[in-house]
Every structure is written in structure tokens, then in C-alpha cells.
């Protein structure tokens, strides 16, 4: 399997035309998953839960040795990418991170409004 960005037609289709093409970003060229062909990063249809958990753990092991893990993770959070393992996080884990960030940002804004 190629890097998720290269292999995901839906990800490319979701990318706004006015935005720079993420495939051109330098971090992408160093992805550890570029030559992986095991299909680890995206779920096949109707994948049983046990198989999904095993596949995701395997994908995360690839991510753990990836030199661009943080760039990939932030890209997936910023899009946000709704499917697949990106930057060592599953889609559900990314949703948790985004929820925590939104809460944190809201907490930061509240004192600013009180002070203002
Ligand atoms: S962090 Fe994982 S998904 Fe992202 S580029 Fe590296 S190996 Fe691929």
C-alpha cells in the first residue's frame, strides 16, 4: 500500500482546489508507508472488529518508525481525514484529539472574554 495520501482517491477528492496539493509537501516523500503493500491503513468493507484491531495495530507499528509521524498526524487532524490510520492514530483516536483540542481552545477563550 502506498502512503494514505497517495492511495486515497477520496482524500484527494476532498482536498479543496484552492489549497496547495498535500502530495507536493516534503514530509510526504519520507513516509514509512510509501512502500507498504499490506493494505494496513484503510479498512476493507465489512472488516470484522478483531481483524480491524489487528490491522490498525500493525499500521501503528509502521507509523511508530516513521520519520514524518507528527507532520502526517497534524495533516490528518487539520483536514480532518475521516478514515484510516494517519500519524499513528485511528479515525476514532483523531476524533478524541480534536474534541480535546476544541475543549482546550474553548477554555482558553473563556478567561479572555471575562478579562475583556
Ligand atoms: S505516520 Fe504512518 S500513515 Fe503517516 S506517513 Fe508515516 S507511516 Fe504513513
From TrEMBL:
PTM (free text): The Fe-S cluster can be nitrosylated by nitric oxide (NO). Upon Fe-S cluster removal intramolecular disulfide bonds are formed.
Keywords: 4Fe-4S, Cytoplasm, Disulfide bond, DNA-binding, Iron, Iron-sulfur, Metal-binding, Transcription, Transcription regulation
Gene Ontology terms: biological process: cell redox homeostasis; negative regulation of DNA-templated transcription
Localization per Swiss-Prot or TrEMBL: Cytoplasm
Biased composition (Low complexity): 7-20
Domain 4Fe-4S Wbl-type: 32-96
Region of interest called Disordered, as start-end residue ranges on this chain: 1-30
Domain of life: Bacteria
Single GO MF descriptor: 4 iron, 4 sulfur cluster binding
Binding residue positions for [4Fe-4S] cluster: 33, 63, 66, 72
Cofactor(s) recorded in Swiss-Prot or TrEMBL: [4Fe-4S] cluster
Cofactor details (free text): Binds 1 [4Fe-4S] cluster per subunit. Following nitrosylation of the [4Fe-4S] cluster binds 1 [4Fe-8(NO)] cluster per subunit.
A GO cellular component entry from the record: cytoplasm
Keyword Signal in annotation: no
Main function: Acts as a transcriptional regulator. Probably redox-responsive. The apo- but not holo-form probably binds DNA.
Family as reported in the entry's similarity comment: Belongs to the WhiB family.
Name of the protein this chain belongs to: Transcriptional regulator WhiB
Gene assigned in the entry: wblI
Amino acid at each position: 500500500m502506498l502512503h494514505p495520501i497517495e492511495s486515497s482517491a477520496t482524500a484527494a477528492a476532498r482536498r479543496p482546489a484552492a489549497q496547495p496539493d498535500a502530495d507536493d509537501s516534503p514530509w510526504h516523500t519520507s513516509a514509512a508507508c510509501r512502500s507498504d503493500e499490506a493494505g494496513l491503513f484503510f479498512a476493507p468493507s465489512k472488516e470484522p472488529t478483531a481483524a480491524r484491531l489487528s490491522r490498525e495495530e500493525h499500521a501503528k507499528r509502521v507509523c511508530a518508525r516513521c520519520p514524518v509521524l507528527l507532520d502526517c498526524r497534524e495533516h490528518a487532524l487539520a483536514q480532518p481525514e475521516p478514515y484510516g490510520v494517519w500519524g499513528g492514530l485511528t479515525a476514532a483516536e483523531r476524533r478524541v484529539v480534536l474534541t480535546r483540542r476544541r475543549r482546550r481552545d474553548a477554555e482558553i477563550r473563556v478567561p479572555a472574554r471575562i478579562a475583556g
